[in-house]
Structures are given as C-alpha cells and as structure tokens.
Amino acid sequence: MSTPPIPDDVRLRRGLHASSSTRRRYAVDEGSIDVRGRVMIPDAQQAERLAQRMNDARDARNRPTLAVSGAQIVAASFLDLAVHLLLDHYRRRRDPVWATRVDARLTRDLGADRWAEARRAFVRTFPSRSVAEGREDPDAFLAGTVGELPATHVVLEERIAVRMAAANPALRSLHELSDETVLGPDDAAALPVLEQQLRELPGLPGLPEGEADLWTLLRAPALAHPSSLEGQLRYVRDRLSVVLGDRFAELADLFGGGLDLLAELRAGGPPGPPGPAPILDPASFRSVRDEPEAFSLDADWMGSVVMIAKNAYVWLDQLERRFGREMSRLDQVPDEALAELRSFGFDALWLIGLWERSEASARIKRLRGQQDAVASAYALSD
Length: 382
Fold this sequence. Notes:
This protein is mainly alpha-helical. It is built from 16 helices and six strands.
C-alpha cells in the first residue's frame, strides 16, 4: 500500500497527561506543559526525575507496589504520541471533518450546555500552559485555536488520548495522572456517546486492526498486550507504522531506547528498596591491600604548575570541528592548539579519560536514553 508521508508540520513530541492536582503533588514544572495540556517527556532523564518525585511522594521505598519507573513513563509518552499521530493521519487522509461530526453528535445527545461543561471540566483538570498560568480561562481557551485546529477539536482529541491511557491496564501505576473520575458527571455522560461515535467511524485501510472502526484501531495495542508495555510498543512499531509513512521512522528509532529501558526493568524485577548488602570476604582483597603505594615523587616544577584539564574525547571532537580534519588520536592534535594553550599561560595539560573504558558503562548510558554517549572516563575496562 502506498502511504503518504507525515507532513513536516506534525511535530513528533512525546508527552503524557497529568491532572492539575497531580502536577502540584509531583512538582511538575509548568514550563514543561504544552499548548494541548500535556506534560512533555523529551528524554529518559526527564522521565526518571518525574518517577523519582512520584516514588518519594508515594513512599515507594516502604510501599514498593506503588512504585513507578522512568521506563514506564517513557512508554506512556510513546503510546500517547502514537494515538496523536493516528488521529492526525485519520484527519488528514481519511476524514477531515470527523471531529466536527463527533462534536455535533455529543452536542445533540447531551445538550449544548452539558457538553460545553464537560469540555470546560477537561480544560480545568488538564489545563494547557496558558490556562495553568492564569493567562486565559477555559472558555477563552475553547474559543480559540491550537495551530490549525479549533481548540474544541483539540480538547476532543486529548479527551480520547486520556481515555486510552486510563483504560490501559499496563499503565496502572500511572492511572492517577489520567484519573477520569474527577471530570464530573457531564464528562461521565459524554464518554459512552464518544466511544459509540468512534465505533461508528470506519477504520484505516490496509490494517486488519483498523478496518473495523477508529475506536478498535486506537485500542488495538492495549487489547493485544493488556499487561505488557513492551508488547504494546512493539505492536505500534511493527503493525501500525505502515499507515504513518516514512517520518514514523523517527518514532521507531526512539522506540529502541524505550524498549531497552523496559527490558532492563523486567530483568531487574519491580522497583523498590534494595536488598541486603553482601558481606564481603576481606581475604578477597588481600592482594590489593598488600600492593605497595606508588605515588609519584614531588618535583620542583609541581609547585608552580598552571594546569588545564581536557576531556580527551570532547577536546578531540572540538579540535576536529575547528580544524576541519579527523582527530581521533592524540598524535593528531595540531601543534597550533598546544601553542595556543601555552600562550594562555598554561604549562601542563591534564587529559581525562585515556584508559580503555568499560563497554558496560556505555551500555548503561544507552539504556537510559543517551544513545550517543561514550562510556564514563572513570569506568575502566580493567
């Protein structure tokens, strides 16, 4: 099947929904909230920091069943992005007015006042940055636009995304963030009408999961792997990417890090307090303990040295960019670079990271989302 590419104006940004009360509880920076009201998760480090704050507030060390991991937050952000990409693709390539028709049906079945109140409740509970900061109220937000779309259509899409997260059993540890019960009776009345409308919309051609209806398409990953975030991510990557075109490869490349994090979590067991520290046998350290100290002798020049430290990898990369030629070894460092350091008053150069580094350190960094990082200068191979 020939698939049109995702347009350049569709931004592949990962995030998840968190209610205003959970944002306060877990000290979410309002600067990380986007125009749709999602908490942006740009990398694994951001996810780990949020997970740590959640675990501290939940006392997860003493109540490990309440613990959440950064890997789970990363997975949730990928799944949320997949929902948004599918809805955007559906609007652009299948039915450009689907949101208008669903909105009209909700207005008819609930009444204009109740549906309007349901939308206001959603914006109050999952506010955009402008609403959260008090620069506009929910009615003003709903009367405007977000990009090329009416804000009312954006709220409809975000309500669907929250429903997907709240109904996903594999995201149980994060359900507090997307709690639907606080949205009130009007939203509760709207939800079955919304689901029925999505079931009446045709799916996407070329997908067995999508041929039936739009609701089934959006729910497919969670239905196929209800207890496995790994399974859901692989499902999206391997079975749904066919309808999203070449730019979906950007997301697929990111999946690798998320899957590695989840695999590492599964291999290590559930998060929680560490087990007892091992009791080491002092005899095993005898050879090290008996090794004589071998400090270098003080010399006359040491007292007046003016030293500069350079991380070897970083310095070589900087010099390579500056001089426009390969510099992967120290003997390739230009004499001009050393002369320049001397002209600044330095007479000693401390090079950091010259020993052979541990591959395990590089792998740990990759598992934590730092795909381009080298091993730590202080993690030695031997």
